[in-house]
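G., before I forget:
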Amino acid sequence: MSRLREELRVIPAGGVWTAVLIVLAAAAGMACLVYVWGGEDFRNPGNWPLRPLLIVITPLLLGMYVLMVGYVYGDAKRRRMRHVLWTFLAFFLPQALGIILYFILRDPLPSPCPKCGAAAPSNFTFCPFCGSGLKPTCSNCGKSVDGSWVNCAYCGRKLEQPGANAA
Amino acid sequence: MSEHDKIRQLLALAAASALEENEQALVERHVGECGECARELAAWNAMAGGLRRLPTPRPRAEVVERTRALMIRQLAAEAERRWDLSLLVFAVLFAWTLTLAGWPIARLLTSGAAAWLGYAAYTAFGWVTAGVATAILGVRHRAVRRMA
C-alpha cells in the first residue's frame, strides 16, 4: 500500500483538482440528463439500474480516467520521457488504450549516479554530468555488459571478472 | 545390497554430521558390531576434523559488496516488474470497464440499429488507432533501445 501511496503522489495537484471538478460536473450533467432532459427511456422503471450508472458510476470512471492521465503525465516526466505527447495519447486514445500503451512502453526509472547523485536514464553507460561509469563495460569494445557475464556479448572477449570494468 | 554395504555408503555423511537422527543411530549400531566400518568411519572422522580446522576462505570485500549491490538491483528490478504488471492489469480492467459502461450510455443517447453500429464503429476505431499507435511507438522504442 505504501508503494501505491508513493505512486499517487506522482499525480500533479492540478490533475487531482481537475478530476474532482470533472466528477462533480459529470454527476450534475448526468443528473440533468436523467431527470430534466431525459426521455421515456430514463423514466421507465425497468431501466432503473441506468440511473445510478449514469449519475454515480460514470462520473467516478471519468474522474479515475483523469487521475490516470495525470499519473501518466507525472510518471512520464520523472522518467524523462516525452510527457506531453504521452499525456495527449493517454487522453485522446479511446477506451483508455493510450494508458495501456504507456504502461507497456514506458522506460525504466532513471537511477542516481553513484558519484554525483544526478539522475541518469537507465540506458546510459556514463553519467552525462560527471562522466563516471554507470554500468560495467567491456575493456575491448566499450559496450556495457551485464554484471553476471563471463564473456562480452558483443565482441566475445573474456571479461577479466564478472562485470569487467566495473562502474 | 546388504546392510553392511548400505551403511558403508552413509559413513562419509555420518562423519560430516549430515545424517538424520534415525540414520545416525543405525550407523552407530552397525559400527559397534563391524570393525571394518568402525575403521572406515574413524578415517572419515579424521578427514572431516582436518577439513574443519582449515581456515574458512573469505571472499574479498569488493566481491561481497558487488554481489550485494547486484542482488539489491535484481530485487528492485523484480519488484518493479511486478508493479508494472499489476498496473497494466489494472489499466486493462479499467479499459474494459469503460467500454462496457459506455454501451448503455450510447444506447440511451441514440436509438435503434444506429446505436449498435455507432458503438461498434467507436470500439473498432479505438482498437485500430491503438494498434497503429502501438506499431509506430514499438518500432521507435526498439530503435532507441538498439542505439543505447
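The mean pLDDT of chain A is 82. Chain A touches chain B at residues 3, 41-42, 50, 53-54, 57-58, 61, 64-65, 68, 89, 93-101, 103-106, 108-109, 123-124, 147-148, 162-163, 166 (CB under 8 Å).

More on Monday.
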